[in-house]
Amino acid sequence: MSDAKNAKAFRWWNIALLGFTTVWGLNNVINNFANQGLAVITSWILIMILYFVPYTLMVGQLGSAFQEAGGGVSSWIRTLSNNKLAYFAAWTYWVVHVPYLAQKPQIIMVSLSWLFKGNGSFIKDSSPIVVQGLSLIIFLVFVWIASKGASTLNSIGSIAGIAMFTMSMLFIILGVSAPFITHVQIATPNMTDIHTYIPKFDLQYFTTISMLVFAVGGAEKISPYVNKTKNASREFPLGMIILAVMVAVSAVLGSFAIGMIVNSNHIPADLMANGAYQAFQFLGNSFHVGNLFVWAFAITNTLASAAALAISIDAPLRMLLGDADKKYIPKALLKKNKRGIAINGYKMTAILVSILIIVPALGINGMNDLYNWLLNLNSIVMPMRYLWVFLAYMMLTKQLDKYKSDYMFVKNRYVGFGVGLWAFFLTAFACIMGMVPKMNMAQDPSSWWFQLALNIITPLALILLGLILPAIAKRTNVD
């Protein structure tokens, strides 16, 4: 009896807090403020209502309907359709991590620069070739560490995650309170004018939606906890709605705090790379503690990025090779070393990420543009995996009689399908619009066209490789 009781030990507040630490981070606020300024506050409210809340509640129903699947998106797709589609879902989940892995070494180097130099000159002064060369070395070192099966990185990641959550909350509290406690000058003029917060819905605006979608994605990681929640039909959606409110409040107050520190009308070009450190430095000076906050955030970001780098080399690959139908994967990729590591899978990861680290440095001028481009590429590619969540939900709405769940997001199958289609369309639209480079074309036309070409070619190449592997497997997987 006690085991059954413990199995349903999660309450709505546990779901909300777990989801918040999984989905949210301070950099989400910085990156989107860099794109839109204070108008992002309206965008946050819209994206929460029109996208994030339906997304999380769809995930809740999928997790509840497929308790035995452990929450894997490819498992949902396999149950609802077939093995081939499930392979493509598993492939997408793995391959979108390639740009993610390519940027983590950059983030580590920026963090260490602030920790030891106390400024952001590294991203401004360094040659892209030199930085990407160092990024490649850092990445390959982590491939080697991950191949040794270093389990301690999981615990480091958990500690860093809690620390990052704490730093995000600290930033909001200090940022909002600083002008009133320390009487510092508010950077953005007219912060009491409603027009400051209204976006201009033009082409430039729509190219930035992918970063918002990227920021609020990943809720499917919470799906395994649906059936561990007490009174799931009531408490899980309540927890998810509280999660959305927490994220919205953090996004709005965080953006407001940055607006007090950085002039929304004159956003620095290096805000995405250095913004969080500059903000913490400003707050440290305002509260007379020097670089204390900068050091704390630099250490936190270094540990979080290092753990994410090592874990993301192994975990998505393990999911691909372990979950997908073996007839679609070449036998050579399944080969394991004595530690149970798919060594050829690691080599494939290393080759793809190495290409993505080095090639852009040959055509993008300036390390800051390179950093911003790679972050933007992540916002184009990473949401591609969310498409499978919405496809799974649409397929589930057509099979409600067959797959019952404790929690139902929408009982009417046609309304449910429509909501799933809307989320699918918005995600695809954001990814496509995000391909337009964010830099000024007139300032550097060759770099702008080079970025556009990479933004189109990279996702297409990654998808194409996923189509090629089953063909190779068909020729080579002969018993």
How would you explain this protein's 3D organization?
This protein has 479 residues and is mainly α. The protein has a single domain (12-477), classed as Amino acid/polyamine transporter I (Up-down Bundle), CATH 1.20.1740. 71% of the residues lie in helices and 0% in strands. Helix 6 (83-95) runs antiparallel to helix 15 (292-323), helix 10 (152-181) crosses helix 13 (232-261) and helix 18 runs antiparallel to helix 19. It is globular and about 65 Å long.
Write the layout of secondary structure elements.
Layout: H1 2-7, H2 12-23, H3 26-36, H4 40-65, H5 73-80, H6 83-95, H7 97-117, H8 121-125, H9 128-147, H10 152-181, H11 203-206, H12 209-216, H13 232-261, H14 271-286, H15 292-323, H16 343-358, H17 367-381, H18 386-397, H19 413-433, H20 445-476
What is the CATH level 1 assignment? Mainly Alpha
Fraction of residues in H or I helices: over 70%
Cα distance, first to last residue? 48 Å
Structural class: mainly alpha
CATH topology heading: Amino acid/polyamine transporter I
Largest sheet: none
Number of domains: 1
Oligomer: single chain
Radius of gyration: 22 Å
What gross morphology would you assign?
globular
The CATH homologous superfamily is termed Amino acid/polyamine transporter I
Q: What is the ordering of alpha helices and beta strands? A: HHHHHHHHHHHHHHHHHHHH
Total strand count, please? 0
CATH architecture assignment: Up-down Bundle
How much strand content do the residues show?
Answer: under 5%
The whole-number mean of residue pLDDT values reads: 86
Count of alpha/pi helices: 20
InterPro entries: AA/rel_permease1, APC_superfamily
GO molecular function, one term: transmembrane transporter activity
Membrane topology: Multi-pass membrane protein
Transmembrane segments: 12-30, 36-57, 85-102, 129-147, 159-181, 201-219, 240-262, 292-311, 345-364, 370-393, 414-436, 448-473
